[in-house]
Amino acid sequence: MIPQVRPDIGDEEIAAVTDVLRSGMVAQGRRVAELEERWADFIGTKHAIAVSNGTVALMSIYAGMGLGPGDEVITVSHTFNATVSAILFTGATPVFVDIEPDTWVIDAKRIEAAITSRTRAICPVHLFGLPADMEMIRAIADRHGLAVVEDACQSHGAEFRGRKTGSFGHAAFSLYGTKNMMTGEGGLITTDDDRLADWIRLYRNQGMSRRYHHDILGYNFRLTDLQAALGLVQFAKLERNTERRRQIGVGVYYPIPVHRQPYVQELGIEAELPVTERTAGRTLSLPMFPGLAESDQDEVIRAVRAAVTERARSGADRSAVTAAAR
Structure pTM? Predict the structure, then answer.
């Protein structure tokens, strides 16, 4: 069976990790610093901060903003769970708005109606590499004095009108093994906010500005140099890997929207999201990873065509049976 995804790991990645192992500096060293510097330059922001995963990236942004009970963040339900759990982590409440029927990203026209006196931020999700309408979202946020937190975990290198996602506000990227740029596990935060960047750097490092001096309550959310070495090699392949993924096991992404998950419903968070409901369970993900061979692509295409033909034939058969019964 052709897998849905497969990490693109070759001799270059193996050599990069081997170099780090031989150096003896495996945590929060020069490879992490290099990855941060190069990612900030690529996205076009003042800061990039490496952390242990994409969920932690979102959690750290919200913690650094001082989000807490009574605050609200506007976001979507057709997304991976971490978009919402990172908000709940702080004690704040997610407020769901529906998605566009053709793009499946947040319907920016619905955002303003969801804003209340408790709203602190808007969190658009750039889904499957497709950016939300950041021009409209940024204008709404500025008009109401709100922060923008981009869930860019699926949009490495994506652009909205010539500008990289992750540069419109604070942003979180995931470096999980299925991404078009990966470190196995890992995350990156981008921001132009000096205060927030300094705070997150303390927060991810046990709150330490220097060894054994804990200035704030922090945790170990660091990325290792082993992961950063992988990331640097992967970064060099990002454009190629993205293009390969565009050319084409199957799966359904997010069949149960987050607002329908038991733990969210137990919190009493309700939302009427008809487009999200219709979309859930109807998203078929085909195999797509940089190493997918041309012959594999042909096999996927043949399988999809056969499945569609069979379903159409079955539908026609059922119609004929129904007509005969009448």
Answer: 0.85
